[in-house]
Write a structure and sequence with these properties.
By secondary structure, this protein is α/β, with parallel strands linked by helices. It has 14 helices and ten strands. The strands form two sheets. Strands 3, 4, 5, 6, 7, 8, 9 and 10 form an eight-stranded mixed beta sheet that branches. It has a two-stranded antiparallel sheet with strand order 1-2. Helix 5 crosses helix 7, helix 6 packs across helix 10 (276-290) and helix 8 packs antiparallel against helix 10 (276-290).
Length: 391
């Protein structure tokens, strides 16, 4: 990801290829995103309006908490896939002392005016991050499954982990676009179920739209700990007897009516080869069903926050680095029992791997000048593990 690590540095000039748009069925798309199979959603005013409605819905779902983890004064925040920048703008306004950076492949929907502490950058989240390690207190990622390539997920999560400060947080919100029913009344004959099946099928070659169901596992594998997550049924209209849920459904109704057409136009007609008339009929039927309170339809919304926690080895190494001492082989051997590992072996393994990779060779030595590679080998042997990290 070729993005500036210093917000005060010069921004990358926008190439004409990124700004070029193409009109399909009277809707504007970013040509670059379509050509490179990055995302397939319109970037016009109608989509900007929908994203604002969606942002207001999610604010109500999360009781106006823009940031889930317990953070008082974050200094650096990264927003991955900012869209129309609704979340990024609001966070920058609420935390004026914080530097907020937003990244997206499309610059077309960003607002004309933004807070002085917000920088919106152009880049592809499918490329590796180039920010320095330990840069951000919080990384925010919301509704990006349609833009992240299937093979990119492990690397994306590792990149997020890398740029977070020790003790920093990763906040993620995703929709699983497989429509469900709270009373089980949706069947395969319903248009909503057909819409979901076709949407998942249209993108399954390059996008993993089922990734939200495995976020906890993928994040644990990447090295995140202290995970908190929950699945929230997001009603497609006002059908709940609970006053709060009824209000959320009522707010979400307009978003859903637009979403069913906006998200599916290109995938259905260009990737599945559906005739426009057939696609419009399906969307019309799906909109009607989404507006039917008796079906109690919803999309599963998955929200999670995860931290990079300082564990035994990491704490010890950080303390010695703070004292400008190089941790010795004997020091590393001090963490060789299961009692010293507060998490599962897989997470411990990942955490050890992260901290060893973070340390430059000159910071690790023993009395005989042992190299970083040798320290790695001995550390993993001591822990009874085989290193799979390249030296």
């Amino acid at each position: 990801m070729s993005v500036r690590s210093d917000p005060e540095s010069d921004t990358t000039s926008l190439e004409a290829s990124y700004l070029r748009t193409v009109t399909i069925q009277n809707r504007q798309f970013q040509h670059y995103a379509l050509e490179n199979r990055i995302q397939f959603v319109p970037i016009d005013e109608d989509e900007v309006e929908r994203l604002e409605i969606q942002h207001n819905v999610l604010n109500r779902v999360f009781d106006d908490k823009l940031i889930f983890p317990p953070m008082r004064n974050p200094k650096n925040i990264l927003d991955c896939g900012y869209g129309a920048a609704n979340w990024a703008v609001e966070v920058a306004e609420n935390y004026p002392e914080c530097e907020v950076i937003g990244v997206d492949i499309s610059p077309h929907m960003k607002p004309d005016e933004t807070p002085e502490n917000l920088w919106l950058q152009l880049d592809d989240l499918n490329q590796s991050f180039t920010y320095p390690r330990n840069t951000f207190d919080l990384v925010h990622s919301r509704l990006i499954t349609g833009g992240i390539n299937k093979s990119r997920w492990p690397g994306y999560l590792r990149d997020v982990l890398k740029v977070l400060k020790p003790g920093g947080w990763f906040q993620m919100v995703e929709l699983y676009y497989n429509c469900q029913s709270d009373n089980g009344s949706l069947t395969e004959e319903h248009a909503l179920r057909e819409w979901s099946t076709k949407y998942l099928s249209a993108l399954e070659e390059i996008k993993d739209l089922r990734a939200p169901l495995r976020l906890n596992t993928m994040m644990a594998n990447a090295g995140f700990v202290d995970m908190e997550s929950k699945m929230i049924p997001l009603p497609l209209c006002a059908w709940s007897r609970d006053p709060r849920e009824f209000e959320i459904g009522n707010l979400n109704r307009q978003n859903v009516q637009k979403l069913l057409g906006n998200l599916s136009l290109y995938p259905f007609t260009e990737r599945l080869g559906m005739a426009l008339e057939e696609m419009l009929v399906l969307v019309a039927r799906a909109r009607s069903e989404a507006d039917d309170p008796s079906l109690k339809a919803y999309f599963p919304l998955l929200a999670s926050s995860h931290t990079v926690q300082l564990i035994g080895l990491l704490i010890a190494v950080q303390v010695r680095l703070y004292r400008k001492e190089a941790p010795t082989i004997a020091h590393l051997r001090g963490f060789d029992t299961k009692e010293d590992r507060p998490f599962s072996s897989k997470i411990w393994y990942a955490s050890v791997a992260v901290v060893i990779e973070m340390l430059p060779s000159r910071m690790i030595s023993d009395e005989s000048g042992c190299r970083k590679k040798e320290v790695k080998e001995l550390l993993f042997a001591t822990l009874g593990l085989r290193s799979i990290i390249s030296s």
